[in-house]
Amino acid sequence: MTHQSLLSLCTSCLLVSSAVIPCISPNSATAQGVVRNWTGGGATDDWFDAANWSPGAVPDPADLLLVSSSDIAGLDSNIVNISDGGRIEISSLSATATLSRLDVGLQGEGTLDMSGGTLTTGFVLIGTTGNSFGTANITGNTSTWNITDGSDRDLYVGEDGEGRLNITGGADIDISDDVLIGNRASGIGVVNVSGSGSTLDLLDAGVISELIVGGFGRGTLNVTNSAAVTSRLGAIANSSGSNGKATVDSAGTWSITEEMYVGSGGTGTLEILGGGSVDNSTGYIARDSTGVGRVLVEGANSLWDVDSTLYVADEGYAELEVRNGGRVVSSIGIVGNDSTGNGSVIVEGDDSMWDIASTLRIGEEGTGSLTISDGAAVENTFADIGNLSGSTGVVTVEGAGSTWTNSSVLNIADSGDGTLNIAGGATVSNTAGNIGFASGSDGTVNVSGGSSHWSNESLVRVGVSGSGTLNILGGAKVSSTHAGIGVIGSGNVSIEGAGSRWIATSSGGSTVGEDGNATMQITSGGAFETPGNLVVAKNDASTSSLTVTGNGSRLDLGFSLSLGNVGGTSTGSATIGTGAHVTVGTSTVIQNANSSLTVDGGSLTTTSLINNNGGTFVFNSGTITIDGGGFHPGNSFLLNGNSTATLNLQGNGVSDFSQLTVGNTGDAVLRLAEGHSLTLDEGTIGVSGEFILDGGHLAAETFNNLAGGEFTFLSGRVTVNGDVLGSSAPFVIPTGGTVDGSGFVEADVVGQPGSTITVTSGNYTLGNPFSFLGFVHEGTLSVGNRIAKLKSAGFAQLGALTTLSGGTITADNGISLGGGDVIMGKGDVNAKIAAGIGSFIYAPGGDLTLGDANAFDGFVSAGNMTVDADSIILLDRNQAQLGTLTTVIGGGKVVAANGVVLDFASAITGDGNIDTPNDPLRPTIINGTVEGTSSNLSIGFNGYVKGIGMLNNVYFTGTHAPGLSPAELLVGNLTYANSATLEIEIGGLTAGNSFDKLTSNGILDLDGTLDVTFLNNFMPSLGDSFEIITAANVIDEFAFENLPDIGPLLWNVNYGATSVLLEVLSPFTADFDQDGDVDGNDFLVWQRNPGVGSLIDWQAQYGSVLPLTANANAVPEPQELFILTCIALFSCMQRVIR
């Protein structure tokens, strides 16, 4: 029987009872009741047979009737009422009473007390009329009351009056049909079922019937202390104006096989407390538009189990509260079902839960709200907040540990208006999330507070076809795979506050404006993160914007940022404000003319920035970092700042411009870092600009720093491609830095140690001709086979290594080399050379020409020089000054057209040749040491060589003029070729001081010409000798001896094994004593040693005297006459003997 038919039946039954009962109730006017005991002594079991009572009389409704010891049978037709203070007491286990109808409190007060036995009745009214008060107390586990009315009559507790039914101590009431508690408007009914085993069962052949708490009046049902109530249907406050309350407490149970109505048409309350439980199929709180329903499920193990749908405000106003560990279970949950429905659900406290097997809708057509707080939980599959058009739904999940778990999609504003609030550390989870799903819908999600989290296994869409808003505040978090904002409708996202963030985990795409309009604002430390890409204004219809601003605000993209659609008409804009940071894993692209990117105080880090199809790029201030890709904001770019704008180009990428200006009117910094290449047709550093080269590669046709800007070269490479790099400040090349190319670098060039300058093509002009420090380089200069023109008002200073491979270096005012500086290779250095101590010049393969043939200091070296199998050609207007060490290897040559000077403490070593003119006016002056490798691998001189240096393993093919004036020269192994000349100067008789002498501890191998000259009008005398050579071994003789004229005297060159002696001899062969005449003393010398000469010569030349006189005029002295006589006699005797 439905609750509507039940109400009609109840009304008709009450009309019958009011008409019949006065007719069958004798003594109804008795004023004072009598105590009567059932004896069963009558002929029948008729309740109104006086013989069955003691004292015997027909019972009055006001009597106290006691049934305690014997059965009562056959009373089905009896209609009994208890009124005016009357009471029936059934107290025996064996007592059995059967009544057709029972009124407890028909008029006044009536009481039924049952503590044992069995009572069987038909229709029962407790508190029948308006002034009545009926009470039935059924107690004890031996008490059973069966209400079995064959005409579907029921139990009414509080019909028009006040009725109370107490079932305690294990008592059992079984009812075949329906129970109404507080039936009529004036009726007040209370049913208390308490205690383990106490039951109220509404049974009809095994089918459970309806239990209504508050039909039209006021009804109360209390099920406590493990008691049990069962019914087919349950209704609390069934009709408009009714008031009903049911409390199931302390492990009590109310089991309903079908629907449960709380505030069906009136005001109804259901409280499930202390481990109590209610179960039913479908549940309604506020069924009709007049209904007001409230359900409280509170405490651990308290449970409302709804097998089917739970409606919170089907049409009226409803509240569902689940607190402190209470639990509600349903298949479906709908809050605010009808357009007139207004429902509220609160799930609060640890372990409190609403467990929904399927769908949850908050605001189906009406108004619904759900609050989950303080650690409570709600679980369901699919959920809608604001489902149908005109509906309003609000869900608030707040507090640490509070959770709403959706195993499927969550729609906030499906077709209506929906709001989701997540706060205080709460968590909401679902698969996909949609905000503003259908056209006309309006959805908002607010996620606020640290640790608050909206977790989406799939994508989140804001403004699918309707209007959607997502606010992430105060450190809260949203996670999803993708983000879709303004899919077709309008979407707005705000991520605000330190720690607030939206993390989209998929590497796929997220959008701000697909076909709809959208905004995303990331402020005050908020963040959006995804490993994928983000598109702003994806399709033509979209006008959408992205703003990231505030200290700590971040946008982190693993892939690209695209503004607008390629060549389309959408409008996509992005602004990066003060303190914000945007990181893009690949490229940032302005796709069309309607779209724009503005950096105004924040930072952008991206692989590439590309402005396609005429979009707008504005860089007012902040930092842009291009890492690994290219910077292409347009063919021409002006980097200015209303504050400081810094552009960092780094990583392995390439950027190019036809024209780039840095800091023309505003403060701007461009930093070109490791791996990045910047190519410019024309580059300019303005008055307030700074260009920092920090490891990258700058390639420019023209680069101008003439307005007072700053060019800071920390490391990297500069290439000038055939035009001009101009700077009013010195162009400093740092350690590790490289400058290459061709063209002009018109500035003071300062190359620090470890820097490199490379000429890659044509001519490269470097330096400032108006500065004495116009070119100062301490690094490497690589010329190759090209031309480097070095400009300086003073010497151009070369660095650690200068190399040529057939190229040319020029410097109008000369070149200097410092200690440790090297020139190496082949080619021409057409400039004055001033090479310091420790410098090194090396020609390893090919000829190297150095110096200035027109300068008196064309080549001056105090350093080292090595030539390997080729030639070093030294140019100087007079002698080239050789340095500390000159080494010739493998037959290499040092060539000097005007000779060389080897100073003291300097040396020439190796095996090669010093090729200089054999001209005393262009001599080679050796005051240092010349040390050939060996006597077979020697140093060759073909020029005019003089000086006082030590010579060893030296081969002369030119002229050797020892000393600078007469000197004794200590030497080693010397070889004079046939073409060679040894010049000896004689100005006296003392070796070294007055005449030249070679003193060798080795071998002197002689050939060629000995050329002897006198100094200072010196003329030797007869008998003078000059030992011009001493050696360990003298080999061979001079082929030619060019000796000066000594008048009548004769020269004798005496070649010994270890010496060469120049002797002045008499012209007379018989001047044996070399005293300038031939006289008797010569004879005495001959007499002692006939081997000194010929006696015949003495005879022929006797009398000859220097100056020469004819011997015919000689008159012998007496002594001489005696000697002559003796000689004549001696001759005669010799003949006689023969």
Short characterization:
Residues 1-31 form the signal peptide. The protein is mostly beta strands and 1138 residues long.
List keywords for this structure.
disordered C terminus; 4 helices; 1138 residues; eight-stranded parallel β-sheet; disordered N terminus; mainly beta
Please describe what this structure looks like.
With 1138 residues, the protein is mostly beta strands. Among the domains are: 255 residues; 153 residues; 58 residues, no CATH class. It is built from 4 helices and 107 strands. It has a 87-stranded mixed β-sheet that branches. The longest helix has 22 residues. The N terminus and C terminus are likely disordered.
Query: Helical amount among residues, as a percent range?
Result: under 10%
* Secondary structure: number of strands: 107
Rg, Cα atoms, Å: 65 Å
**What is the count of DSSP helices, taking H or I runs of 4+ residues?**
4
Structural class by secondary-structure content: mainly beta
First and last CA, distance: 198 Å
Low-confidence stretches: 1-31, 1109-1122, 1128-1138
Give the DSSP E fraction (strand runs of 2 or more residues): over 45%
Task: Give the overall shape, derived from the CA principal axes.
Answer: rod-shaped
The overall pLDDT, averaged over residues, is: 89
* Largest sheet, strands/sense/barrel: 87 strands, mixed
